Amino acid sequence: MRLNGPVTITNFFEFQSLVRSNTARHLILDLTHVPYIDSAGIGALVGAYVNHQKDGRSLALVGVTKRVRDAMQVTRVEQFFQFYETEAAAQLAHA
Asked: Model confidence over 13-35: pLDDT tens digits?
């Protein structure tokens, strides 16, 4: 799933709906084109992580920018996620 633009309180409900409706065993979120994420967006990512974990599925993040990664570090949620440089690397890791 490729995200485009900031993930903020103005659009995180749409993001949540998309993630919740996805039933793939392994979901890869491509954040290459996400320049910014606020606390609501981070909360949505954590919610996606929790939902996938409880269902025995996995979630990977691809192309996370420094600004987004820094926001995840500040909020101490970075440890929950698997990060990959490319979608191909994420797919290979979970093949």
From this structure: 888 888 888 888 899 999 999 99
On the CB side of 48, how many CA atoms lie within 13 Å of its CA?
A: 32
Q: Nearest CA to 91 among 64, 69, 60?
A: 60
Measured distance CA(94)–CA(67) in Å, rounded: 26
pTM over 0.70: yes
Residue with tokens 């990977």: 60
Q: Which two three-digit tokens encode residue 71?
A: 């926001």
Q: Which residues, 6+ apart, have CB-to-CB distance to 84 below 8 Å?
A: 28, 60, 61, 62, 90, 93
The yes/no answer on whether domain 2-93 falls in CATH 3.40.640.10 is no
Domain ranges of the chain: 2-93
